[in-house]
Design a protein that fits this description.
This protein is of the alpha+beta class. It contains seven helices and 19 strands.
Length: 503
């Protein structure tokens, strides 16, 4: 497991190249990382005893902190053991992180620093690749479109696989929940990717998305106005859902538009006629670009200030719903000035637009003076978005029976926003959606989906089209990576001490 290089060694390892691949091997063929010689304050010479690549999957310190994981042997032959030699991280995740280092890279996978006295806890992860959706011009050569062009997304480094890993950890901060199912929990997301070219033109970017596929909720009696209660369907809705297809749509199941067994996106899809029968919507996990060696390392915080999603009324204008592109609907609507969409009020740009003297700042989620919290928001909390999609797809009898898309979507969005919107502007502000507050007679915790509710993850290739929705949403035509959620039960430590700023 350990290989010692020092004075008298006949062969010294070459320096690790950025690719992480040009490494000397020991007698058993194991690739060894380089050593370093230093002197301590007493002038004693330190030699490094380096862990071979074959041992790296067992090295927690490597997976979270450094490319070179070593023990040191001082001049007095005192050994200082490497920390974390028995990593609790799941084996598939460890193997993927090692693969990311073995492929060309500018930097190693993200360092996961603790933001509390105790380590952050890994409770779920996603392994990403290019096999879970219909091939497109970003991931494949399509004859007649890009077969004579240079590759622009996947395919760098001689065609090595484009893969990624996403670690989702909970910070056990004082006063914060330690259950990842609690929407108030402080959660970090670390995304590491290998094999995507840098995007150069038109301010393009890659964007990561946590995806929630709609479930069939429980059944409850209707409100006094005959509409469904929050997070439920009425008995009439449930009866209609059961008659669809093969009877899949029962409480707790993934909802499918045809009532048959769930069919997740796959490489055999063909837009627009062969598509998933699920209804999913994403929460943005942040935007990024690639490094020189075609690797990506991103960090994002998941909490009630970020657990928001694009306005659903943008969907008919992305080109991702079959027929909308041919109908010329791409770009026919803009959400640059926040508001409730086509079925609601139209806000004044001077009041709600991007003011040069007070620019919109959707990251201004907290302020001791509530008036300084941002109110000109284009997106809505994820749990409220879930209500919109329940109206559109599952509340067949209790919400606008007989009204078709897209009007049904526009009406549902305006209606659900109005239940939380206290000043009638059709916009949900951070103050109105305060997780510790109430709205419509209910606690605001209902407005947010927990991190564990996001069963898929995707990365898209974006351009500046003016919309917050993913490119070609709800389809997968801009996907470059995707993967499924893996839960870790019980959760395991997955960070090192300690962040410089435990915000």
């Amino acid at each position: 497991m350990f290989k010692r290089f020092g004075r008298g060694s006949k062969k010294r390892p070459r320096e690790v190249h950025r690719t992480g691949r040009n490494l000397d091997r020991d007698a058993k063929g194991a690739r060894a990382f380089p050593f370093a010689k230093t002197q301590n304050r007493k002038g004693e010479r330190n030699e490094t005893v380096c862990i071979t690549c074959d041992a790296l999957p067992a090295c927690d310190d490597f997976l979270s902190k450094a490319e070179v994981v070593c023990t040191r042997r001082t001049g007095k032959d005192r050994e200082v053991p490497a920390p974390g030699r028995h990593s609790p991280l799941p084996e598939p995740l460890k193997a993927r992180l090692v693969q990311l280092v073995e492929q060309p890279h500018t930097a190693i996978p993200n360092v996961a620093f603790s933001e509390a006295e105790k380590p952050s806890q890994l409770f779920q992860y996603y392994l990403l690749d290019t096999t879970g959706f219909q091939p497109n011009i970003f991931t494949n050569i399509i004859p007649g479109i890009n077969d004579t062009a240079e590759r622009t997304a996947t395919g760098p480094n001689g065609g090595l696989p484009t893969v990624g890993a996403v670690r989702v950890v909970l910070e056990p901060k004082p006063g914060k929940p330690t259950d990842p199912n609690d929407v108030r929990a402080a959660i970090d997301v670390f995304t590491d990717i290998s094999g995507l070219f840098v995007i150069n033109n038109e301010s393009g970017w890659y964007e990561a998305w946590l995806i929630h596929d709609l479930r069939v909720p429980g059944v409850a009696l209707a409100r006094s106005d005959e509409s469904a209660q929050f997070g439920t369907v009425t008995p009439g809705d449930a009866a209609t859902l059961r008659t669809m297809g093969s009877g899949n749509n029962v409480p707790g199941a993934y909802f499918t538009v045809d009532g048959n067994a769930p069919r997740f996106p796959s490489a055999t899809d063909h837009f627009p006629d062969i598509q998933t029968n699920l209804v999913g919507f994403p929460v943005s996990n942040g935007t990024f670009n690639a490094q020189q060696q075609s690797d990506i390392h991103a960090y994002w915080e998941f909490n009630p200030g970020t657990n928001w999603t694009f306005p659903a009324y943008e969907l008919p204008f992305t080109g991702g719903i079959p027929g909308t592109f041919i109908a010329g609907q791409v770009g026919a609507l803009s959400s640059i000035v926040p508001g409730p969409g086509p079925a609601g009020v139209k806000n004044e740009p001077i009041r709600y637009g991007d003011d040069p003297d007070n620019p919109r700042d959707p990251d201004r989620t907290d302020a001791s003076n509530p008036a300084q919290k941002e109110f000109r928001l284009r997106f809505i909390p994820s749990g409220l978005a879930n209500e919109v999609f329940l109206d559109v797809f599952e509340r067949i009898t209790s919400f606008e029976p007989g009204v078709a898309l897209p009007q049904r979507l526009f009406d549902a969005y305006a209606k659900e926003v109005a239940r939380v919107d206290k000043n009638g502007d059709g916009v949900i502000s951070f103050e109105e959606a305060d997780v510790n507050g109430t709205s419509d007679g209910l606690p605001n915790t209902r407005l947010y989906l927990p991190a564990t509710a996001f069963n898929r993850f995707a990365v898209t290739r974006e351009i500046n089209d003016g919309l917050l929705a993913p490119r070609f949403a709800p389809g997968q035509r801009s996907y470059v990576l995707s993967g499924f959620q893996t839960l870790v039960r019980p959760s395991v430590p997955a960070s090192i001490p300690q962040d410089a700023d435990n915000r």
